[in-house]
Amino acid sequence: MSDDESWKRIAPALLTWADVDPARHPFDAVRAGDVVRAVAPPVPPPPKWVGFQLVGGSEAEQWRNVVSHALVDRCGRWACGWWWFAGAGEYHGGPVDGWCCVSHSVTSADETLTLVAESLIGWRGWLADLAGQFTRFLPLLRSQESPDDLVVAWEVAVAQLVNLTAARSRSDGGWYARCQQVLTWFLTAAGIPEQHRSTLIEDAIDGRFESWVEPSTVAITDVAERLAHRIVGPQATGRAAQPTPGTDDWPDTWPPGWPSLRTSNLPAQPRRYRRPEAGPATDDLAAWQAVRARVDWSIAAGHVSGPVRTDRDAIADHVAQRPAGSQELTVALGQVRRAAAEGGPLTFVRLAEWQRTVLGVPEAGFRAGPAYAKRGRERYLWRPDLPARFEECLAQATDDDLPLPSRAARVYLDVAFFHPFDDGNARAAMLALYYVLAREEVVLDRAAPLLVTVRQAGDQFGAAGLAKLVELLIAATRRRMRA
């Protein structure tokens, strides 16, 4: 093998989605340390700077490359990204927080091998994160009936993937090349022909991102819009009709048979590497509250105002198509509309009134203990102050200082993750969002991208992306209103 061939074999920038897709390449993170110690040759002495010369640097770099080849032999080509550092190392701009460069990372034998294993796990975690995002967005792209809705779905997916890549790489070095790689992988997973991918992405970015510079919201939005329109343009016809919504428990609107992070109809994927097994101390509500505080809701979406509506109410149409409970939910929507016409803040009393109608029960009080969702994979612990804190969150949904899309998205997630009721929380979240929009005379004429996506409590990018999605759906409704 020539030096050039040897390098290409362990160059992370040359990896394809087929190389890294976790569904194709099983990996046991628990055994990562054993694997590294089994394949790595003896660790060389730590390099030392003598003046401007790194003594022992070449030997350490050669050892690192040998380890990379050995991990590729054992685990597959995906493993070569273990040393792709996020900062200003020898191969900067990557997503790995761990290994830096041989001058800092090669220390004692035990510490060095431990760091290699941790970096390998971190790299695999990044790939699993991306696979989760792809699983979230691909069904949206495959379900849209109209080119307008398909453009919106692509815009949201691209914007979130760019945000995720920029954050993970800390926008260091040539981070935007990593962004191009992630988008290429996504287009691959979406079935875009190979001969078009590079041109589509390069034309969309076209100098809008810079090395060492965090991308602005305007730049991300512009790239997402350009790429979405370029992709949809030649492929806007021949789309299958949207599947009939089903009755899955989270969210209410997930159609049966679609790929889902909650079901078994996807290839097995590894558990995210830093996610502990659910135990007594796990509290996904706390994870959501941390995300809620971190997101800058003032810039997550733009300001919009009503009235915005066409002859179609997409959420009402969705409710009418439900195979079970549609009548009760339709009555509750009427209650929400009347309350929105009256105005005023969103309160738990109002939400509970609608929930009594939805469930057909005489009372719908705040839960008195821990709650579970996603078949037990998320849990929301209970504390005495939860009702009061939830009431505060509901009141913020009508604070006009924040953009309407941000408030609507945030209250949707508040209801989902506070999980205030014993049953029907996804429906309650939909009604809360509907109220916040209807209160300002906004009624969406397309809602599938909003209603079919699984939300995760600790997903900061997903939370901000939901606000942007609501903005895009409002904008699309306004365009059709004026057509």
Describe the secondary-structure layout.
Elements: H1 3-9, H2 17-20, H3 32-39, E1 48-50, E2 53-55, H4 57-75, H5 102-105, H6 109-141, H7 147-169, H8 175-189, H9 194-205, H10 217-232, H11 284-294, H12 297-300, H13 314-321, H14 326-342, H15 348-359, E3 371-373, E4 378-380, H16 386-396, H17 404-418, H18 425-438, H19 448-451, H20 460-482
Antiparallel strand pairs: 1-2, 3-4
Helix pairs in contact: 3-6, 6-7, 7-8, 7-10, 7-20, 8-9, 9-10, 11-17, 13-14, 14-15, 14-18, 15-18, 16-17, 17-18, 17-20
Protein name: Fic family protein
Domain Fido: 346-475
InterPro entries: Fido (IPR003812), Fido-like_dom_sf (IPR036597)
List segments where confidence is low: pLDDT < 50 over at least 5 consecutive residues: 235-281
- Helix segment count? 20
How many discrete domains?
Answer: 3
- Beta-strand content estimate: under 5%
Instruction: State the major sheet.
Output: 2 strands, antiparallel
Determine the CATH topology of the largest domain.
Fic-like fold
Number of strands: 4
The CATH C-level name of the largest domain is Mainly Alpha
Which structural class fits the helix and strand makeup? mainly alpha
Question: Widest sheet: strand order?
Answer: 1-2
Please give the CATH architecture of the largest domain.
Orthogonal Bundle
Helix proportion: 40-55%
What report would you give on this structure?
- 44% of the residues are buried.
- By secondary structure, the chain is mostly helical.
- Residues 235-281 have low confidence and may be disordered.
- The chain contains 20 helices and four strands.
- The longest helix is centred in the N-terminal third of the chain and has 33 residues, at 109-141.
- Helix 3 packs across helix 6, helix 16 packs antiparallel against helix 17 (404-418) and helix 17 (404-418) runs antiparallel to helix 18.
- The protein has helices at 3-9, 17-20, 32-39, 57-75, 102-105, 109-141, 147-169, 175-189, 194-205, 217-232, 284-294, 297-300, 314-321, 326-342, 348-359, 386-396, 404-418, 425-438, 448-451, 460-482, and strands at residues 48-50, 53-55, 371-373, 378-380.
- It folds into three domains: 3-127, no CATH class; 142-235, no CATH class; 284-482, Fido-like domain (Fic-like fold, Orthogonal Bundle), CATH 1.10.3290.10.
- The strands form two sheets. It has a two-stranded antiparallel ribbon with strand order 1-2. A two-stranded antiparallel sheet has the order 3-4.
